[in-house]
Amino acid sequence: MNDKLAFRVDELADRLGGKLIGDGTIELSGLASLADAGPEDLSFYSGTAFTGTTYVEALARTRAGALLIAKHHPELDVPQIIVSDPQLGANELMSQFFPPTKPEQGIHPLAYVSDSAQIGDDVSIMPFAYVGSHAHIGARTIIHPGVKIEPNVRLGNDCRIWPNAVIREGALIGANVIIHPGAVIGADGFGYARREGKFIKLRHVGIVVIEDDVEIGANTTIDRGTLGRTLIRRGVKLDNLVHIAHNVEIGEDTVMAAQCGISGSSIIGKRVLMGGQTGLVDHLQIGDEAVFIAQSGVIGNVPGRTTVSGYPARPHREVLRAHAEMRNLSQLRGKIRELETKLARLLDEKDPTVRRQ
Amino acid sequence: MNDKLAFRVDELADRLGGKLIGDGTIELSGLASLADAGPEDLSFYSGTAFTGTTYVEALARTRAGALLIAKHHPELDVPQIIVSDPQLGANELMSQFFPPTKPEQGIHPLAYVSDSAQIGDDVSIMPFAYVGSHAHIGARTIIHPGVKIEPNVRLGNDCRIWPNAVIREGALIGANVIIHPGAVIGADGFGYARREGKFIKLRHVGIVVIEDDVEIGANTTIDRGTLGRTLIRRGVKLDNLVHIAHNVEIGEDTVMAAQCGISGSSIIGKRVLMGGQTGLVDHLQIGDEAVFIAQSGVIGNVPGRTTVSGYPARPHREVLRAHAEMRNLSQLRGKIRELETKLARLLDEKDPTVRRQ
Amino acid sequence: MNDKLAFRVDELADRLGGKLIGDGTIELSGLASLADAGPEDLSFYSGTAFTGTTYVEALARTRAGALLIAKHHPELDVPQIIVSDPQLGANELMSQFFPPTKPEQGIHPLAYVSDSAQIGDDVSIMPFAYVGSHAHIGARTIIHPGVKIEPNVRLGNDCRIWPNAVIREGALIGANVIIHPGAVIGADGFGYARREGKFIKLRHVGIVVIEDDVEIGANTTIDRGTLGRTLIRRGVKLDNLVHIAHNVEIGEDTVMAAQCGISGSSIIGKRVLMGGQTGLVDHLQIGDEAVFIAQSGVIGNVPGRTTVSGYPARPHREVLRAHAEMRNLSQLRGKIRELETKLARLLDEKDPTVRRQ
Fold first, then answer.
1. Pick from B101, B164, B219: CB nearest A148
2. Given CB 3.0 to 4.6 Å as the disulfide criterion, which of B32, C217, C250, C284 pairs with C239?
């Protein structure tokens, strides 16, 4: 809608406190990946020993007009801004090239806000959002269209709740929390008493507590506690379509990729990394900094700083060894056949009158 | 918002018809788990032979002011109410400690209800809910904010449809059904005719039928029949993020944990238990009371009263045996090496002029 | 609501250009599966060499009043309409028996449409739908209740966006695209820079591009690019609860069943078939017409026209062989025991004074 913004390379280097090698007067109007960048774009290359060949090749071929880069590459004849962390540098410059937009402040006339709700300063509440009785919305928090906030929810400052997310009654949510579209916070847990083959629903009167700096992916579901609380600690990041059952607790800075599922009352440590589609049964204890390879199926506790994979999840090294063994099974079978033949021959020679069957 | 309610222990015992041992005059204002309870709280302990050590320890350490318990524990010096089923007892008392709240009755002026819709007595239809033409809403049913009910849906009495759930046209839903936030009932099935590498969409003109006493989890999806119906029978409980494809039929009192996926036209029996992330291919027949361990990948029929696990799912005992075999593979390999050595030695001795290669 | 429509068999045969064998004057008022059809219904049978026994039996037992069928079955004494593709024939006749309904055209007064949005001819925008600033809605596109379209989205002609779907800012969507309820297009990708154990959110300023003739399932999530775009090419069909991460590219006419998850920057070829609950790690390359058996866990590139399964996904034939080997492991163990016994006996006989331990 607007004319594109443009920035001189030397301005951008100054902005990041980076060392510029090359022509600083070139003007750039975009920020793009190595593969997509054209002469009018800045791009970036983090370039470590672990960088895949794809990136090395992309660097050689890029048409970018200038680069954020960790060390000078003299073979590339474009201006280079040397910074210690090109990825974070690029992230910082995004606000130049793509100025963040925020919706208008205030309560839109097509929103519903209960008279008993408390609304902080500079809040945006957009059309078809619903804020129930006694809810509390912190300052500068943005409630996108169609979000439903049920009674007695408490949302901290500077949160952003994207369209059609649902936060059910009583949830306590800290500051700087992002909840993506369609996420459901605080639905009833999946808890029944089984009596004579039928299931009697247990009421779920617990809540969900989400601490500061948490991000919850699109269509992810976090159930309320049966009693007590489901607790998502500071800095946790959950991807899309993740399921967190009642009374689970997730430690600080733990990260779960898409479609993970955590069953009731499991306690996950800090800085745990969980690959996509991992599943945990209920009542487990997971130590700090455990790592789960994608699609792990976890049926027992996992100590800290352990990498597991497979179903049932075991230490990843064991799993790799087992897979290698599997691949060698037919070789094993061959050896046994060979042994059988030799032994049979030996027995025949020893007593030629007794025929083996 | 209100002052906390408080109840005397003897009142609570009377309410449940339980036997009180200890001081009945103590007043309690909360109901909490053994671990979370304080002196002002009631807690409960079901205590069976199968109770894990966590619960036994939690009982020993609880700070609860009184207990619902199956048999008297004289070593604990708090009042104890003896009932046959402490979990159900606690569930029954929840309505004392946490009186259920219901939204105001009536159609909110910010809801949309078609003129041709039929609305039962004492219904609540909240802001931004949509009720399409010729829909029928049973008595006392609660439609939370943002729910979308498309034309010709029939919803029974005493249902509760939580925020932003979607029920597409023609679905027939019984009484006492709970649909959690974001669930989608009656989207088109995933059916195409493949012709020359392209996919031609098949129209889905079937419906979804949900019988009484069913509970559908948050963001779960149940597709309509291509022709005919997808059928969820009485008492079925589905957790969050479950996928039920077109023309599936699920038998009475069957339970599926989060993220299960059932492909088209599969027929599931009664009282089946399915662990999380289990997947079934299409057109399967599953017998009554079959049990699926979490993450099972099912590619064939499963007879009744069978427990299966793994991919491809097999009887769980076989799977456990196979895993044990796997763990012993290197031992097997060792034995073969030993046999080879012995045999080689034997052959060498027998004919020392012929060197084995 | 209406009286049922009825059609003569000969009219239906004419409509499809099929050959009628039997009484053309019979009137039919429905279209149903072989199992469900009654005397007033048309049914159909595709009948190929690969048709399962269920269908053959259903044909023998059907009570349908007439049949669409690929070749005449003289043993069935109902009118038969011979067509080359009975399934497609039935699909074509659906519009007779079940005339498609469309909502009223126009912008409903309970919808919100930004003044700067551009709305094509004959569009329907239903209650509680939100169309943000500078969005563009193509001609004849239908926006169901509760859909949220954020600023700068471009939607082509003849799209249908079902209730409560969310399309975030800047997405570019072609013509004839169907998005089912609760789907989320364009949420932020799951991308962080990890620095000293904490995760710094990377801004996601890319977009989602969806070409013509794509169908997106209920509650499916497609994340926007970090930079650049996530690209869903012409004719792709995604089932429910699928997750597509940032910067993924999916080739033409590729099909993914429910609950698949594709991690960031993976490139999927054309006409790929992916069974349900399949997961791919990031940065993979998948060739055209690769096939993934349900629940595959894919950690490496897969060449075109290859069928893989299991975790870690390998060529399906190898996996089947490995499973057969597994089942034979105890037999292998038995053979080794036998060899040990024979060898021990041999050694004993050879030197009876030396006892083996």
1. B164
2. C217
Work out the angle at residue B106's Cα, subtended by the Cα atoms of residues B103 and B109, and round it to the nearest 5 degrees.
Answer: 100
ipTM: 0.93
**Cα B219 from Cα C242, distance rounded (Å):** 12
Range of the domain at A85: 7-97
Say if residue A195 is in the same domain as residue A265. yes
Listed residues C47, C77, C97: the one ending a domain: C97
pLDDT at A357 over 80: no
In a shared domain, residues A259 and A283: yes
Catalytic residue among C136, C246, C316, C323: C246
Write down which residue in A34, A69, A97 finishes a domain.
A97
Kindly give, in sequence order, each residue whose CB lies less than 8 Å from that of residue B71, ignoring residues fewer than 6 positions away.
Answer: B47, B82
Give percent of chain C above pLDDT 70.
95
Is residue B251, in this structure, part of any structural domain at all?
Answer: yes
Low-confidence ranges of chain B (pLDDT < 70): 1-3, 48-52, 350-357
Q: Tell me if C76 sits within 8 A of C59, measured CB to CB.
A: yes
Residue of B nearest to C31 (CA): B227
Per-residue pLDDT, A337: 85
Distance from CA of A219 to the nearest CA of B (A): 7
- Count of structural domains, chain C: 2
- β-strands A192-195, A198-201 pairing: antiparallel
Tokens of C224: 């926007």
User: Which residues of chain A lie closer than 8 angstroms to B221, CB-CB?
Assistant: none
Q: State whether C166 and C73 are in the same domain.
A: no
Question: Are C163 and C269 found together in one domain?
Answer: yes
- pLDDT value of position C51: 58
Measured CA to CA, the distance from residue A240 to residue A30 in angstroms comes to 29
Query: Based on the domain organization, do B148 and B265 belong to the same domain?
Result: yes
Query: Looking at CA atoms only, how far is residue C297 from chain A in angstroms?
Result: 7
User: pLDDT tens digits, residue range C205-238?
Assistant: 999 999 999 999 999 999 999 999 999 999 999 9
